[in-house]
Structures
1.
Amino acid sequence: MKIDYNKLMQEEITSFGVKPKLVLHCCCAPCSSAVIEKISKYFEITYLFFNPNIYPESEYVTRKNEFNKLGVKLEDLGYNHNEFLELIKGKEQEAEGGDRCKLCIAYRMDKAFKYAVENNFEVVTTTLSISPHKDAEFINQVGEALEKKYGIKYLHADFKKENGYLRSIQICKNKNIYRQNYCGCEFSMQTK
């Protein structure tokens, strides 16, 4: 039976009580926009920007700077594209959404959990599930595994539900936020 991660998220949010400290892994301003709107009243959020997959570096800087239009201050863990290339070595030609992407997603989420442990956060989640091109079930399974590994709660989500993706498009139009036309790496750029 397929899990309704949006419903599960709503149940989890109501179980927290007082606003817990949450690390929100942010992939880009467009994806983050509707997520921030949806969960900001429930959590004390730190916005974590860790995306070594983004290519070229000028694109990384552009995506990072677009958060200013959302009024969000990012914790940026820095740009090291070689780190990503080493991670996916041998999987460069994988289809979009395949093993290369899964490694990338899991790696960035793991880094968010490590950051949460080092900085005494209670909850972690990611904006990645808002994309219609990302597998919310896979993302949530990774989150569950990392919750067990690190002992920090993972907030389940499928942010594309309840028109989340459409809402992100509206917010971007209203705030004139740059919307990229590829996921991030040079390999996803080739499939656009």
2.
Amino acid sequence: MMLLPATVTAREANDTRRLLAQAMKGEQGDAVVVDASNLQHFDSAALAVLLDCQRAADASGKRFTLRHVPPKLAALAALYGLDAVLMAEPEAPPPAA
């Protein structure tokens, strides 16, 4: 699983893109999972970075999954019409005991 940093704006986008591309090289299995739980400050550049990551995953034959999406990022993705493309299906709640 790859973790996004706390800030991904136009200023950090290229560095974040490079870090994710490097981390993807070490990902095992048939999926690329990106955890957005650390993300606090972002702009539309974060969506561009995530789209690049998704394209790279697709190109390598892997499924792309974005987890722990902050509500504001989900809203921004919806504003740009990218929610269906980037947002993961809701995680199933744990089974009741």
3.
Amino acid sequence: MSFIENLKNRWQVKSGLQVLLILIVFACTGSSVVVIKHLIGISNSSPSSHRILFYLAVLPIYNIMLLGYGFLFGQFKFFLNFEKKFFKRIIGLFKKTKK
């Protein structure tokens, strides 16, 4: 099975074009975060505290940008569901397990 077919099955999408659009959205979002990081002036030589604060701040920004780029590329529904799953997992980390 090809890489694209694996992604189609994993993401439960119908076409290879949709997989390509989803990958483009991830690429655009990641590139945008790098540009923001550069504009703010965060680099490897920045103090660790600045880098940690940036990564904590960029998490909600990244998720909003995913939805925005997803909308622009016609994949909003996919990314909305993706975000819902992501936040369910994050919330699950903080919930106490009952015995």
4.
Amino acid sequence: MSSDPLSDALGLVRARCLISRGFTAGGRPWALRFDARHRLKLHAAVRGECWLILDGRPPVRLDEGDLAVTNGTEAFILASDPTVPPLDAEELFATDPAPIVPLGGEEVIGIAGHVRLDSCCEDLILAALPTMTRIRAADPAATVLRYLLDRVLVELAHPGPGSEFAGEQYAQLILVEVMRFALDGRNVPETGWLRLLSDSDLRPALALMHEHPAHPWRLTDLAQAVSMSRSTFATRFRTLSGVPPLTYLHNWRIRLAQAALRDTDATVASLASQYGYASESSFSHAFTRTAGVSPRRYRSLHRNRATP
């Protein structure tokens, strides 16, 4: 682990941002409905404008160069006109294998993608973002995003050697830029991991827990690291994150253990020592209480899923 909690979390969830489809539209009214699937979705108006309509909410206009990120908790519609009956986007993309699907003219060019997250930390990312995050083309953050989106569109429209790999790398950078945009505080929920990460006063304590998860941290140690009293630190941490500091540390250790059980052959005893538990039995008890299954059962389930 590093002293950069955002990099740690994105690496641990094995976040993979995939932008594999685009569409052109215009010349006639159009609308596409995207169902809620509890995953981050990215949508950009590379050229032209359209409306984004979340269920039960007023339409939001996406101007050329705007980017919208939804956290997968609500279905939504992209449309030329909010009153147009939508087609099912998944069905449309399933029936047309082309990387750029035509819906009519080419006045509008859009890109659709999603982020795959590993289940052990998925809740960190999904709960960190609001239902919809909009990055306007005029925002300074959009300069980099506009370049990355243009490169993705080139790889989709004119695939060449290495296009699939290049597209994935551009998409990964898009995800990082979106998270950085959220971290500036304008789009951070009142409580949660991202709110904690955006607090410059508490971030050093968070970095210590990430960098040295096995250390027997006491509340006093962490409070001293950020020059706060024990009570002030505990209250502020819980207010922003939603959980006490040592509960966050426990949950982070379990997330690390889940990744290790899934990806390595480390023994349960070695993981207990690696993540700061006094014995294998105490680690197994803590893991089971948090993950719902024992470490060995967790490993078995995830190894079986990985088997073709």
